[in-house]
Request: fold
Amino acid sequence: MSPPRPRPRQPLAQRMIDALRRRPLDAAAALAVLIMAAWIAPGLMRWAIIDATWTGETKAACTEGGACWAIVTSRWRQVLAGFYPKDHLWRVAAAALVLLAGVAPLLRRRTSGLALATAPAAVLLAYGVMEGAGVLPRAPTDYWGGFFLNLFIGLGASIFALPLGIALALGRTSRLPVVKGLCVAFIEVIRGSPLIVLLFAAAVVAPLFTPAGMTLDKLTRAMIVIILFEAAYMAEAVRGGLAGVPAGQVEAARALGLDRWRTLVFVVLPQALRIATPALVNSFIGLFKDTTLIYVIGVLDITGVLRNAVTDFAWQGLETEAYVFVAAVFWVFCFGLSRWSASLERRLSIPGKSA
Amino acid sequence: MSNADCAMVAIRGLNKWYGDHHVLRGVDLDVAAGERVVVLGPSGSGKSTLIRCINGLEAYEEGELDIAGVGRLAGAKAVEQSRRLTGMVFQGFNLFPHLTILENCVLAPVQVAKRDPNVVREEAMALLAKVRISDQAHKYPAQLSGGQQQRAAIARALAMQPKVMLFDEPTSALDPEMVGEVLDVMTALAASGMTMVVVTHEMGFAREVADRVVFMDAGEIVEIAPPAAFFDAPRQTRARDFVRRVR
Reply:
């Protein structure tokens, strides 16, 4: 047997030159990107950082010619938590932590059934901490706002939407024509309607039809609409996952004597949800950005707070700063999510399987 | 004792259609306790369909099918019971990829038979030792070779303590060098007295292990004979043609 020999290697610079020579289109694209970056970056840096003004009480403080971030920093409390009572901001922080702690166990390699129950409980607990009861003075949802609201709606709605989405996906594959028909109709109607229209309906139209005496506050109504909306999208993601589980898996489970329910819980869903993870995260990112539409029901999320700010005489005309800031915040969160999702996919992947 | 009393599997007048295609045409077959039956036949002859009917993976339109007497129960209960009494080994292994080999073996005994997980785990380890892959118990199916996966699948089926083991072309999806290790496990299982119905193209296995060979063609049983008689002197023309082609 001939002894193994180390693979021959060229120096890095030589390898790069070779690679570019082999792919002239890539080389051209790389060059174009570099030129663009060199062209845009200095101006952007100067505007956003070097010449920017970071603090101030009105836009008059912004004299450097760069971005006027004072519009954000002067009202950071609203940006984070809306008009929530100043002395109770710890409740907002606590609620955010409870939410994140509730979601975390869902994302382990082997999600236990318990996590599916604790996550909704965490949302309700966060709601309780914010809303207040007993020892905590009440702070109705009218006071909620800022980026917390985006987080609360995005995470909270997704947590409730996932089980509903799974149920809808299963319903869609049901052999019972009525169940199947209802699920298909629900999914297609919801997916065919813009979220903003549904939110408007929840805010304005729904109260006209609810029986007298029954009132739900507008945030709860919006939450329900968003849960249903997200469930329809998640159902399609889960359906894709279900279709990816080979028929032999069900046969093997049935042959071992597992009934329909146990086959689903122990064999089909663990595989289907794993396949559906990228699509589910994708739909969550979409929903998270869509939480900015909540302004139609008259609550001020992070976008709303800043949109309000630019109508204030003291800050008039700073739309660019306001929207660039919102875009940056969402970009950081969504980019973080997609990186995290990639690592989740790696952790969820089954050892020995390439896919 | 009459034949019907000691039959582990009793099939009477079984007819099945896929749409309008008549795939099983009046199949009668008794398999005695401890007997090893190998089902041979050209592809499309209904061999796989027959054993899939035995454990209820396929429904049939006419006839009776009875495993250890439970077929006399009616309907869904009977299907459930017959599944508990039969172990099935598939051509494509069909191990659960998200569970380790040990977990694959433990799932059904704990979840279906409601047995003590600790006892089941010990038994499963013993079974994995028997199929000589106890060192792979904590790996995932995709980390094993095809031969190892099929042996794990056999252990998983045995963990439910079935009375009859059904094999649906267990070596057809394997690389040639792995066929032997799976056949060895099956041969050992046969020697331990397990009732077995095996659909296979492995003529050597049929000749050495089978008590009887069942030859099927076009949805019917054409000939049933001891292997020596079947391979050396098939009585029916169709069987003769088949034997000549596979030899």
The two ends of chain A are 34 Å apart (CA to CA). The domain at 71-348 of chain A is CATH 1.10.3720.10 (MetI-like fold).
